[in-house]
Amino acid sequence: MNNLDIQAPVQFTCLYDVREIMAALPHRPPFLFVDRVVGLEPWKNLWAYKNVTIGEGFFQGHFPGTPVMPGVLVVEAMAQASFLLLAFSLKDFSDLKPSDLKIGELNGRIGYLASCDSVKLRRPVVPGDRLDLEVYFLRLGSRIWKIGGKATVEGHRTAEAELTATF
């Protein structure tokens, strides 16, 4: 899928909560930017969200009197969601893995964001927002993968990007 206007499933259910997310990601608060995974199409798409609260540490300096979530952290949230797409697809749907994909277990391996392309920051994210994340694979290899993603608040696009990640 190569389209930033992904249609999410009609009904969301909580597939993975924060405990399962923390078991899959090495990130911990205050640098964990995914609270819940609400939709998963294995090996293709993932839908998640981050509840943005005034208690986030970055709001103390960005900006006093006008708190705005830094755009790079919105992109980081998409990157974390993309690793969850890979981790949960591999963990719970390995039988659906594309036959030409040569990737082993992720245990003990850390994914790193390698590049960000076509990043567009369209609207500020502020305390009280629910940052909805949609990510999907553009290309998936054994050590490098390319991800498309978008972030929205109340249906309004806040950011979009193409990310490259590696182990």
Annotation keywords:
2 helices, 6 strands, Thiol Ester Dehydrase, Chain A
Helices, strands, pairings?
Elements: H1 18-24, E1 36-41, E2 45-51, H2 71-92, E3 112-121, E4 130-140, E5 144-153, E6 156-166
Antiparallel strand pairs: 1-2, 2-4, 3-6, 4-5, 5-6
Name the CATH class. Alpha Beta
Tell me the total number of β-strands.
6
**Amino- and carboxy-terminal Cα gap:** 23 Å
Overall 3D form: globular
In CATH, the architecture is Roll
Fraction of residues in helices? Answer: 10-25%
The chain-level structural class is alpha+beta
Give unreliable regions as ranges: none
Detailed description of the structure:
- The chain has 167 residues and is of the alpha+beta class.
- The protein has one domain: Roll (Thiol Ester Dehydrase, Chain A).
- It has two helices and six strands; from the N terminus they run αββαββββ.
- The protein has helices at 18-24, 71-92; strands spanning 36-41, 45-51, 112-121, 130-140, 144-153, 156-166.
- The protein has a six-stranded antiparallel β-sheet with strand order 1-2-4-5-6-3, covered by helices on one side.
- The longest helix is centred in the middle third of the chain and has 22 residues, at 71-92.
- The mean pLDDT is 90.
